[in-house]
Write a structure and sequence with these properties.
With 391 residues, this protein is α/β, with parallel strands linked by helices. Helix content is 38%, strand content 15%. α6 packs across α9. Substrate binds at residues 130, 154.
Amino acid sequence: MRNLLQSFARAKETFGLATQARNSCMLHKICQSLHTSTPSLAKVVAVLYEAGAAAKEPRLLGCKENELGLRKFLESRGHQYVVMSDKEKLLDSELPDTEVLITTPFHPAYVTAERIAKSPKLKLCVTAGVGSDHVDLHAANKAKITVAEVTGSNVVSVAEHVVMQILALVRNFVPAYTQVIKGEWNVGDIAKDSFDLENKVVGTVGAGRIGYRVLERLKPFHCKELLYSDYQSLTPEMEKAVGVKHVSFEELIQRCDVITINCPLHDKTRNLFNKEVFDKVKPGVYIVNTARGAIVDRDALVEAVKSGKVRGYAGDVWYPQPAPKDHPWRYMPRHAMTPHYSGTTLDAQMRYAEGTKDILERYFEGRPIKPEDLIVHNGQFASKAYVQPEK
């Protein structure tokens, strides 16, 4: 009897091992089948500025070296992540099989209609920051490419920069600082072109998320008037809160001592500030532009500054970017220009890196991208700010 039971136990064990082997073999075949039938995951390309030694600062997320902090997030999900600073041949070589392209206003890769035509797999363009004018939005619409940006991520950063540069111009800061660097001391030379902001008429062209925050920050300076021109009015409550008045563009340029440009770049605003406009502005006006360089006619501005019609010009946006060494704005008198960094403070980089991750997460999981982040989607403009007439 004992022998019979032992034989039965051995037979059961053998049967169990055989069953386990068969199950393991079947599981292996299923896994192989799933692997071969699953489509390849996405290729994501990011074009970011090169920071060099500055990249040792880990919070400098927006540079090529620190990759928006996205590599682990993307690669852990099986996606390919290619990061570069080159905006020309290397980018062109990667585009044909790219599904997602991440760019930034601070080192813009110009996504032209020609590039879109050569990118058959491109489905999503993400701006890490705010401002997607470096993408041909009409071409993106026709190709059914979604364009999204991290709305609101750097509006505070830019608004603060605007106020800083207004004060730098009005108080004649740059020549004063230059005197110190050169070991000079001539108070009269500086003071003869230095004014107070109080009791001046200040206006913004564009009163959206940035323009309105500029107005909020100017209120404590007790300006004589705060004006704005825009395609739509603020609510009465918003106007009352900062004491601002809605006027036409024509009235604004003729009345303001200081003009700040805070509107998007599109067909209607390209070269908006041209010779004709500079002929109409109040003599001695200061202009600050942190929107886009192409809103201002390059050569017309140089002439207006040289003639004194424009007393001073500041901003951080140029066209193209990076600005060539021979760009005339570098050398015109009475300017306070900087490289394009107003919206890429360390605080802003944290916000737009997180926002970019959120857009990617929603896209790959098939969830809707937040409406406020969409610029174009399903072949249509999703943002009123970028609605443009067809060429």
